[in-house]
Design goal:
With 506 residues, the protein is mainly alpha-helical. The protein has helices at 5-17, 21-34, 53-60, 69-76, 78-86, 94-100, 110-113, 118-135, 139-151, 161-176, 181-189, 192-197, 215-224, 234-243, 285-294, 297-311, 318-331, 335-343, 346-349, 359-369, 378-386, 411-422, 433-440, 454-465, 471-481, 489-498, 501-504, and strands spanning 247-249, 258-260, 270-272, 275-277, 373-374, 429-430. The two termini are 45 Å apart.
Length: 506
């Protein structure tokens, strides 16, 4: 009898509801494996001395390939894959949805979140983000969720932000991650989490002589739209703050919802970046303000630069930035159109291996390429936090840095993670290296006492890095594996590769 996907989901749901957590996770893991979340019998391995172009795309536009992703991309082609990823709503993601539904607080309103302990909320928010990054087939979407979460950073350690950030993730970042930039900024400005984080709810004018709180206005101009060199003045910050007065957060039975209080709004005439906003508009001041700042030429330049920096180079190519800026202006902030042009550019194609993975990217790519089974419990989160990139805990509004220097001091923790992962030493994370390496070599395996020759070493290295090892790398691999320190050939070779400079970069 053939079991449909719907029947499998329903059966797994019934079993999960009646089982303790560990048993629940085992059932879900078995179900998702049947839905395609597994390691194929045979994997194609890049054979070039330079990084394979398809591997390069999966390393930047995704969090690295899951076993079999490279084969699929090579089969359908880059254009078709990008079309699928940009139109992510059409990509079936049932297995990931099944895993991520187990984090219930993510789906609750802020008022209900106040009923939970802070530690539970923080853990589930981090686990949810990790699980979706590892298992979602909508990889470009998840990468952009991470990008905008940094661009519109909110630290859950400030005040009550923790109780509101799940809603911000669900209703602000995710719906607009591949949508329109102005819609994203509009949603963010009114997000209760952002109103708390940037003190927007304290921005009031109850009396004629009241001075507005400029914090949210300054970050809107400096970080979220025009950029620090965007050409605005202190007067523009002040006038922007006046436009934002009166937005606050409800209490009582609708606790946690944004609301506008006309009695606390500065309803006079404003002048922002040379544009006059008439008096008497009340909450409509916001729409006029966002039209001014979101479609300013400096905003197009700022967002184009950040995207080129994220996906192409730490020194963004000027011509690429100019083209992306033009697309932003022409399309009024269409994120998909900018990304399509970026990933189709010669600048992107020529940039392989030039970016250092941030800790989150490094961990997620390690888990994906080894086909790991995890629900991202505390021990896994702790590794990412030790490397310096704990989810949603960066204290300042600029978000985690996307340049190599801040992360160079995290290498020891990366090596420790690689060693623990390949030996199944991280609680709640399980991998099967024998199965993976059997797929790399067809039906052959590397046994505990096998002699690992250069051909097998080259294949495993190529799988994880997208290219063949050079002479120095191959010599280091074979020398290490034939030394007396060897305990398990599979674990030793994969751990060494994950800790190598070749895997640390993308």
């Amino acid at each position: 009898m053939t079991v449909s996907r719907r029947e499998l989901l329903q059966a797994a749901g019934l079993l999960v509801a009646s089982m303790p957590l560990s048993g629940c996770e085992k059932i879900v893991s078995l179900a998702t494996e049947q839905m395609g979340e597994n390691i194929p019998v045979h994997l194609k391995i890049p054979e070039k001395s330079s990084i394979d172009e398809h591997f390069h795309l999966l390393s930047r536009a995704a969090y690295g390939p899951w076993p079999g992703d490279l084969d699929y991309l090579q089969e359908v082609g880059k254009d078709a894959w990008l079309h699928e990823q940009l139109n992510y709503e059409q990509v079936r993601d049932d297995a990931c949805q099944m895993r991520s539904k187990r984090f219930e607080t993510i789906h609750l309103d802020p008022g209900t979140c106040f009923e939970f302990k802070r530690s539970v909320l923080a853990r589930e928010l981090a686990s949810y983000s990790i699980v979706r990054a590892v298992y979602s087939k909508r990889q470009l979407y998840e990468v952009m969720v991470g990008f905008w979460s940094d661009h519109l950073n909110i630290s859950i350690d400030k005040g009550d932000c923790l109780y509101f950030k799940p809603t911000d993730d669900r209703l602000v970042i995710r719906p607009h991650a591949l949508g329109n930039f102005r819609d994203l900024i509009h949603a963010s400005v009114l997000s209760p989490a952002m109103l708390i984080y940037l003190d927007g709810k304290e921005n009031k004018k109850p009396r004629p002589d009241s001075i507005p709180n400029e914090n949210a206005a300054r970050e809107l101009l400096e970080l979220h739209t025009l950029g620090v060199r965007g050409g605005y003045t202190q007067r523009d910050v002040y006038e922007t703050a006046r436009c934002l007065t009166g937005w606050t957060i409800q209490t009582g039975w609708q606790r946690g919802k944004e609301t506008f209080d006309r009695t606390l709004h500065d309803n006079g005439e404003k002048l922002v970046l040379g544009h006059r906003i008439p008096a008497g508009l009340f909450e409509q001041d916001l729409d006029h303000l966002l039209d001014i700042v979101c479609f300013h030429p400096s905003t197009a330049q700022h967002i184009a630069t950040k995207l080129a920096h994220k996906f192409v180079s730490d020194e963004p190519p000027a011509k690429l930035v100019q083209r992306l800026s033009g697309i932003f202006t022409r399309t009024r902030g269409d994120i998909k159109e900018m990304l399509l042009a970026l990933f189709s550019s010669n600048e992107f194609a020529d940039s392989s291996g030039g970016k250092l993975k941030r800790p989150f990217h490094f961990v997620i790519s390690s888990l994906r390429m080894t086909g790991a089974d995890t629900y991202a419990h505390e021990q896994l989160i702790e590794y990412i936090s030790r490397m310096g990139q704990g989810p949603f805990t960066y204290p300042t509004p600029d978000g985690y840095p996307d340049k190599p220097e801040p992360w160079l001091g995290t290498m020891l923790w990366r090596w420790n993670f690689a060693s623990a992962l390949v030996s199944n030493g991280i609680p709640s994370v399980e991998i099967s290296l024998d199965r993976l390496i059997a797929s790399i070599h067809g039906q052959s395996t590397i046994g505990e006492s096998s002699n690992v020759d250069s051909i097998k070493s080259r294949s495993i290295f190529s799988y994880f890095t997208g290219r063949s090892p050079n002479d120095h790398e191959l010599k280091a691999l074979t020398k290490f594996l034939t030394s007396e320190r060897k305990t398990s050939a599979n674990a030793e070779i994969v751990g060494l590769i994950l800790a190598s400079p070749a895997f640390q970069r993308c």
